[in-house]
Amino acid sequence: MTNRYAVVLAAGQGTRMKSKLYKVLHPVCGKPMVQHVVDQLNTLDLKELITVVGFGAEKVQDQLGEDSHYVIQEEQLGTGHAVLQADDILADREGTTVVVCGDTPLLTGETLQKLIDHHDAEKAKATILTAHAEDPTGYGRVIRGGNGQVERIVEQKDASEEEQAIQEINTGTYCFDNAMLFEALKNVSNDNVQGEYYLPDVIEILKGRGETISAYQTPEFSESLGVNDRVALSKAEKLMKRRINEQHMRNGVTLVDPDQTYIGPDVEIGQDVVIYPGSVLEGTTFIENDAVIGPHTTITNCHVGAETTVKQSAAADSRIGARVQIGPFAHIRPQSNLGDDVKVGNFVEVKKAAFGNGSKASHLSYIGDAEVGSGVNIGCGTITVNYDGKNKHLTTIEDDAFIGCNSNLIAPVKVGKGAYVAAGSTINEDVPSEALSIARSRQTNKEGYATKMKSIKKD
Ligand code: UD1
Ligand code: CA
Fold it and tell me: Taking the model in full, what pTM does it have?
């Protein structure tokens, strides 16, 4: 097999986005556009992947990390000039180079593979990925000769009225014979309306030399959507959302209303999971079989166990066991680890806390920086007093302890195994195992006092 390389164009400023965020870093379904592109390219067997960066170079490099090599395009003189920046690394190599724009987030690895297969089968020196667009405005148009052969691409701004009527567009994705690409790029001029060095001009140059030029037309126009402004960004979001949601539904997940369900590209969901509207599943989240999520629930980077229910709640960077009941209106903050059969009920906030199997905090509590054993019952209104204004301290509640309602546990503190804390207690010393701790003032009843008060006449 010939060596394969890829160049991702990501140096443009993205003026039309009118944003301080660099264009290719705008997220689609939670993942930056350029990351979508690189992830799809990485499904191909590549020897080298190079991203051309310019504006916001460091931020793009931070995002892609070691997924790519980088070359800098100091001045954005056009897509042809951008590819030429990879000259030092690629020019002398034998093989096939795929060029993709960093602003086409919907492009799939399968379509790229079909493009390469077509290129190989046709023994072409350049193959353009084209698509039929209902509204081709803004895209380069594919000009074919009388025999149907591709001759050149003309940009919207350079196109005659007749050319503008052509609906076959250049998706901005190509396959080239590597050596010929770099050789031809040196002959691209900037003699056009925008004064830019256009990559598509390579097609005309190679054609002029009698080389074989081919085009592979994908039936999926939606994949070629180029995001130049926020209207297109919202279209990309919608298309990607639908693609992701349909994939999950085909895999056996029930989305009660897919239009109102937002699932990130790296989320994994097991069979017979039911997701109610208004749910947002983000990052690297994994939901196991038969869980019920939502309505109105946000889960970010969590592992959620089988048969667990999360209603009207938010959870982030945490592990949640099987058959757990969360919400409505609970907040699971980072570094929490809930065992199986746990209950975290309404208006309970959990932060950096571990709950052993079967433990419950059913109502109105704050449990932060805590290690809670198994079989623990935390009464309504319990607060772990974890912060002294400077440092955070740990609360330990051992197995089978029972914390009465409205208790304050002033950390660092430990409640021993099987111990009881009486309701309304403020605990600032460890409670021994199996003890009952009462830490509140004694009640005094003044018999008949109320009647006496009522009998005192007002002036
Ligand atoms: C480009 C194509 C057009 C095609 C369309 C598909 C050219 C001249 N035109 O137009 O035929 O239909 O994509 O979406 O190639 N970039 C750089 N450096 C530069 C200029 C651009 O890295 O100097 C990068 C941008 O960051 C972007 C990509 O190249 O990711 C495409 O540039 P853009 O300006 O969006 O080109 P289009 O006008 O969309
Ligand atoms: Ca574009």
Answer: 0.90
